[in-house]
Amino acid sequence: MSDIAESLEAVRARIRQACEAAGRDPGDVRLIAAAKTVDAGRVSEAISAGVRDIGENYIQEAKAKIEAIGPARVRWHMIGHVQSNKIKYLPALFDCVHTVDRPDMLDRLERYEKPIDVLFEVNIAGEPSKSGADIAGLGKIMEKARTLRYVRPSGLMTMPPFTADPEDARPFFRRLRETLAEMNKKYGLDMKELSMGMSSDFEIAIEEGATMVRVGTALFGERS
After folding, report:
1. What is the per-residue pLDDT across 93-127, written as a single tens digit (0 to 9) for each?
2. What global pTM score does this model have?
3. Among 29, 69, 188, 211, which residue has the least CB neighbours within 10 Å?
């Protein structure tokens, strides 16, 4: 068994254990392999081992890997911040975008008339160094999202402040879950996805309702 296959088995075991502790079905949690800086060969190895969702942070890096691996083998997720001049590449490359954080992104995605799932990034802790809408800004995005035909509002995404203790992330994950319910109720939406939790804290995220966990280091090892 390859090192990636072994790591994948270990991550899946952690997901199962977290779901059991939370009384959840492991089938309700989607593992997204966060592949930033991971070469196409190792990403392909992960796919062969059973990974079905790949997350990328940068357009050019993702484009090269998708061309090398093929677009249809897995679902491709954009999980990094997207600059305005790169939005035009999203519909052709990705099945799901996790980092919509302003209304103009929705307008521009809608113009391509291609169905695409989107999640809305929320800066739940209000950190100046991070992307994402605050709660007031999220409301403005929801007003736009519920009027669109091709862009499909699917859920919310966040990155809590980094701390040594994963338990410290719990209040932020819980707040995102509560925010999802609030947005659905206020704007008449039916979003179900919560993209939250990474290698160090995804068990806590699962306990708080994560439906997507973005795992890189635990699968591919430390990045160089």
Report:
1. 999 999 999 999 999 999 999 999 999 999 999 99
2. 0.96
3. 188
Return contacts of 142-145, CB within 8 angstroms, 24+ apart. 142/183, 142/186, 142/187, 142/189, 143/103, 143/187, 144/103, 144/106, 144/107, 145/106, 145/118, 145/120, 145/187, 145/189
Decide: 176 and 204 in contact? Cβ < 8 Å.
no
- Expressed as residue numbers, the domain containing 53 is 3-220
Asked if the model's pLDDT at residue 224 lies above 80, the reply is no
Whether the CB-CB separation of 99 and 123 falls below 8 Å is answered with no
Residue ranges of alpha helices (H) inside the chain are 3-22, 40-49, 59-69, 90-93, 103-110, 135-145, 170-187, 202-207, 217-220
56: CATH: 3.20.20.10
> What is the tally of structural domains in the chain?
1
Strands, DSSP E only, in 72-122?
75-78, 96-100, 116-121
* Triad 211, 77, 117: Cα angle to 5°: 75
Structure tokens at 180: 């999802």
How buried is 175 (Cβ within 10 angstroms: 0-12 exposed, 13-18 middle, 19+ buried)?
A: middle
Query: What single string gives the DSSP state of each residue in 131-162?
Result: --B-HHHHHHHHHHHTT-SSEEEEEEE--PPP
Q: 86 Cβ partners below 8 Å, 6+ apart?
A: 59
pLDDT digits (tens, 9 = 90+) for 43-66: 999 999 999 999 999 999 999 999
